[in-house]
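Take just one protein record:
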Amino acid sequence: MVPEAWETVRGVDAPLIHLLDGFLDAGRVTHGTAAHLLRTCHPERVATFDVDVLHDYRSRRPIMTFDTFQWTAIQMPHLVLDRLTDEAGRPFLLMHGQEPDARWERMVTTTLAICDELGVSRLLTGSGIPLAVPHTRPTGITRHATSQDLAHDNPPLIERMDVPGQWSAMLELRAGEAGRVAMGYVAHVPHYLSQVQFPQAVKVVLQSLMEDTGLRIPLGDLDDEIAENAELIDAEVAGSPETSELVAALEDAFDTAHDRAAPVPTADEIAAEVEKFLADREQDQNP
């Protein structure tokens, strides 16, 4: 804990945003949102967690650099809590770094104790999920929350399904059981882009965060990044007749669904996309 920074966020009704790397992150939405906040909102360290007791080094080995005849660097995992400031000077908290591999319940208990100590008003998170949607249409988003009235302005993504757990989801679950306010945003990422950065989804997550918290987060060069990304995607699609046909079919399905308010994909369809995403990701990490 850094006492000086800690005291600046005590009792000021600061929301806590938790964006941890390590699990389902189609379009790198979680990572990209955290990176954008750190670039634009002047981070100051509040607390550092002891990752040595949380991280499985054999499962997720840190990258090391070897130069000529010696080891020169290592990229150690981290898990930290920073104080950030929006454009209006309002402080908020960002927990970022690697998802813990161990001691999940203890980490949840510790995080909720921090919320008590600092008077945190609500917990928020964001992520991406791969869906059969085209990149040429507005990026959809689905809210989830500890109470139904907070998950507004969108139909439920699914009715019910069982999926592998993640720490941020467990934190939201335990927060709800304790009567706290917690919520998150799931951006709909085109399944054919799930393994690459998709800044369009980062923007809709940021916009949702601002809408629900009143924060004023600078977008910086995000719109330029989105435009450049769209040009690259369009060039790749144009160079592949198969992908062009896929995108055209998704556009037709998307437009038809919105014209007649068709139901959202079934749990089985979403589960199939998630399983494929995780399998592709595991293959990339373990070639």
